[in-house]
Amino acid sequence: MENIILTGYMGSGKTTVGRNVAKMTHYTFVDTDEMIVEQQHRSISEIFAEEGEQAFRDMETALLRQLVAEKKEHLVISTGGGMPLRKENRQLLSQLGTVVYLKACPETIYNRIKGDTTRPLLQCEDPMGRIGEMIAVREPLYKEGAVFTVDVDELIQSEAAAEILKISPAMNASNKDLLRRSTAK
Ligand code: S3P
Q1: Residues 106-145: tens digit of each pLDDT
Q2: Measured in angstroms, how far is the CA atom of residue 61 from the centroid of ligand 1?
Q3: Rounded Cα–Cα distance for residues 153 and 156 (Å)
């Protein structure tokens, strides 16, 4: 299916970069966390506090099944950082379109998310340590689930978006032409 899916750890820039990619391609931007919040009428923190992480993971899988069943196309989909953890989710994401992993190192992530209170998994004594541990576990899964990796540490958001458009086979010639024009300005 013709969609672009962005995966990666919290704070890797999926939402900002995704919005840029959507603007450049005239695709519609959606964010799986936002969709779950809308469906559930409560925040991610509330879902975690009231029902726990596994219930949230089930909601993520249900949402991907729904997007595949609805055969949605021309979307840029920013996913929650834990989305590729389940094998079924990785398969569903691949069915949905071109999966791109936004790779950022723990230091970059920490600098972007420090002070943020909306991410329940990082509300702990040592967020930097937790980030390092989680990335070590998740990295192989992010890589396994994606067809491309974009290293975002050294890139500003608009450059990361341009990289994604260059490598995405979902882009046809007219979109590539559009990109050339928008980056030439
Ligand atoms: C999570 C990432 C969050 C959100 C939830 C769990 C994770 O999304 O889905 O807090 O397990 O990495 P973002 O990556 O958009 O912050």
Answers
A1: 999 999 999 899 999 999 999 999 999 999 999 999 999 9
A2: 14
A3: 8
Sequential DSSP letters for 105-154: -HHHHHHHHTT--S-GGG-SS-HHHHHHHHHHHHHHHHHHH-SEEEE-TT
Q: What is this structure's pTM? A: 0.91
Give the distance, in angstroms, between the CA of residue 171 and the centroid of all CA atoms in the same chain: 18
Pocket test for ligand 1, best of 17, 29, 121, 131 (most atoms within 8 A of CB): 121
Q: Among 168, 5, 170, which Cα is nearest to 83's?
A: 5
Structure letter (DSSP) for residue 26 = T
Length of the chain: 185
Q: What is the DSSP letter of 82?
A: T
Q: What is the pLDDT of residues 34-55, one digit of tens each?
A: 999 999 999 999 999 999 999 9
